[in-house]
Amino acid sequence: MLIGNALTALNFLCSLTGSRTAYSVLNHPEWAIPPLGFLGIVNFVCLIAIWKWKRWGMYGFAASAAVTFIINAISLSIFLALFALIGVVLIGFLVRPVWNQMD
């Protein structure tokens, strides 16, 4: 997930330079590119925090996934937007047994 979010953020942020070679294969509208690039960076930072056993990382990851879900639901479709929630569910499932041990 760390690598995937870093590459996604890079993909969206490179699209801002005017080069369409890095444009999303999902054909997001122009207005959705900057927030999705920013959210990719936020996800990356939150995943590092989770890796370092910080609870705020999970909260931030869930919040950014919720915003990503809203943007994808508006710009693409509800079905495709559900994929933004798979990562949160997976990480939440894996972190739940050790939640009390996190800072």
Class based on secondary structure composition and strand pairing: mainly alpha
Could you tell me how far the N terminus lies from the C terminus, measured between alpha carbons in angstroms?
21 Å
Question: Mean pLDDT score, rounded?
Answer: 82
Number of DSSP E strands? 0
Distinctive features:
single chain; 103 residues; mainly alpha; 69% helix; globular
Task: Outline the structure in words.
The protein is mainly α and 103 residues long. The chain has one domain (2-101). The chain contains five helices and no strands. It has helices at residues 2-15, 33-51, 55-75, 78-81, 83-95. Helix 1 runs antiparallel to helix 2 (33-51) and helix 2 (33-51) packs antiparallel against helix 3. It is globular. 20% of the residues are buried.
Question: What is the topological layout?
Answer:
Blueprint (H helix, E strand, L loop, with lengths): L1 H14 L17 H19 L3 H21 L2 H4 L1 H13 L8
Structure summarized in a few sentences:
By secondary structure, this protein is an all-alpha fold. The protein has five helices and no strands.
